[in-house]
Amino acid sequence: MIIGSDFDGVIADDTEARISYIKEKYRVDVEPEEIHGSALEKKVGRRAKKDIEIGVNCSEKTMLFQPMPGVSSVFKELISEGDRIIIITGRTKAGISWARKFMETNKIPFHHIWSSKEFFLNPERELQRMISGYDTGLKGKGRIAESVRPAVFVEDSDNHLASLFPIKDKVKLWLFDHPYNRHIFLEGVERVFCWNEIYKKIQALKALQFAGKWQEQ
User: pLDDT by residue (tens digit) across 149-160?
Assistant: First the structure.
C-alpha cells in the first residue's frame, strides 16, 4: 500500500518555531490557531504570511521542528510491512532539502518526497496524462497524488485539501487535527488526531482489501 503524507504539520510540528519567528520578526503574539492559513494572513498580512512560509518552513529553522508523536515508529512499522511512504509538500526545493535532513536526523524513514511547487507543466507529459485518462485540470498536490495513487493522504491545510479534494473518490483524505484547521468540514475528508490512530486505520483498510480479494477468489 502507498501511504501519502504532507510534511509540515503532519510529520513535523512547526507550531513553536512559527510562533517564535512571528513574535521575533513582527512583534506579534499569535495563538496556535492563528499560525496558518487565513487566520495568519489576517494577523500579519499576505506578504508577511509568504515570508513566514519561506523563513520558517523552507529554511534551517526546519531543524527546530519536533517530530509528531509516534511518526517514526509508525513509518518504520509500515515499511516493514511492505508499504511505501511518499511525501508531497508545498515546500520549495530548498525547503525539501531541509525536510530530508530533518527526516534523516530524526531517523524517520520514507521513500520519496515531491514538491507541488516544483511540479512544472510539460507538454509531452500532459499529452501522455490525457491519453492515460488523468485529469489535466488538477493542480498542486492533487496532480502528483493522482499520478502516484496513494491509498490515503494525510494533510493539515485547507488550501492543499482543496487541490486534493477532486480525487477523494480515488484517495482517502485524512485531515490531521490542529487548532488552525478545526473550521474545516468537508464531506469525504476524515479528521485524524495522531499517527497511532492513522496506523490503526491503515490496518483496517488492509483488512478490507484482503477480504475483498479473498471474496473475489
Answer: 999 999 999 888
Q: Cα(193)–Cα(137) distance, rounded to whole angstroms?
A: 31
Cβ contact 149:124 at 8 Å: no
Report the DSSP beta bridge partners of residue 89.
115
Regarding whether 140 and 46 lie in a shared domain, the answer is no
Indicate whether 112 and 173 sit together in one domain.
yes
The pairing of strands 12-13 and 66-67 is antiparallel
Total count of domains within the chain: 2
Q: How far apart (Å, rounded) are the C-alpha atoms in residues 139 and 181?
A: 21
Q: What is the CATH number of the domain that holds 180?
A: 3.40.50.1000
Within this chain, do residues 185 and 210 fall inside the same structural domain, yes or no? Answer: yes
Considering the entire predicted model, what is its pTM? 0.89
